[in-house]
Amino acid sequence: MAELASPQQLRSSLIRAALVAVPLVLLLGTLSGRLAGSGEDNPWFAALVKPAAYPPGEVFGIVWTVLYGMMGVAVALVWSARGARWRGPALALFALQLLANLGWSPLFFRFHRIEEAFWLIVAIFLLALLTTVAFALVRRTAGWLMVPYLAWLVFAGVLNWRIHELNPDGGPNVSNASVDVRLPPQE
Questions:
Q1: Residue 93: Cβ-neighbour burial (10 angstroms; 0-12, 13-18, 19+)
Q2: pTM of the predicted protein model
Q3: Which residue from 145, 164, 76, 154 is spatially nearest to 122, judged by alpha carbons?
Q4: 137 band by pLDDT with thresholds 50, 70 and 90
Q5: Which of 9, 27, 33, 95 is the most buried (most CB within 10 A)?
Q6: Is the pLDDT of residue 185 over 70?
């Protein structure tokens, strides 16, 4: 006969899951952005025409840290819900949307594919929406923790589309590598 876990055992299981999931999601998100050369110090990105609604660069680091942390807690809640009917599909959807999310920075910042990055955000949003619903079927709190991410994806999608409209030719022809510009010697 299977015994039910005590509240303390359930809490311990959630804490263990969160101690793995939160740092892992944060690390993967950070690596994706760093390896892709995302941010204001990317010469190609710095030269793009940006919409008026574009927030200061440091906002993105703060927002993504909070969102990845919330997603980590949400997935930990679902991961620790052993025996829940929708647990497996919810975790699979989370993995799919996270992989798509991690692919956005390289597509946009490294490969300069602005329009394709927009369509990827649309796909990420749809996967994240399905994940949110599946999470809510397992643990309502996990679903609610995904809602700010959905809202940010809408905002990011609007920014991405406006950047595409303002830079119809894919932006400036600037390399991501640092450029060593030297003047010819004076005679």
A1: buried
A2: 0.85
A3: 154
A4: very high
A5: 33
A6: no
